[in-house]
Design a protein that fits this description.
Layout: H1 3-22, H2 26-46, H3 51-76, H4 82-110
Helix pairs in contact: 1-2, 2-3, 3-4
Length: 111
């Protein structure tokens, strides 16, 4: 399957997971973590040769993981997992910031 189609399927999975979350559907929400994160990791691996895509997709994987931790926290721990989700969100931001502050400039100079 073409990567663009996989990216679109990934968005649909992510929306389905978050819809389960907002509707307080615990089991379907938990089940949707696996395919959503697995597809994100697969897409990241496929783009590993392209620095910009790699770093953005790593950030997406961290975002989905953070989002999932936050969801689990709301479902089962009175949102007690939010600090862990925050660390993952910040890691995603750092990943993208690193790309833009250091790697993208290098790519521009080399072209």
């Amino acid at each position: 399957m073409h990567l663009r189609k996989l990216e679109n399927a990934h968005i649909a999975l992510w929306l389905l997971k978050d819809t389960c979350w907002v509707m307080d559907l615990h089991v379907p929400g938990l089940v949707m973590i696996a395919p959503t994160l697995a597809l994100a990791i697969f897409i990241t691996a496929r783009f590993r040769r392209y620095t910009a895509e790699l770093f953005h997709n790593i950030a997406v994987c961290l975002w989905i993981t953070a989002n999932s931790v936050w969801m689990i926290g709301e479902f089962f721990y009175d949102d007690g997992l939010r600090p862990y989700a925050t660390v993952l969100f910040v890691a995603g931001l750092i990943t993208v910031a690193y790309y833009y502050l250091f790697l993208s400039r290098k790519e521009i100079r080399e072209t």
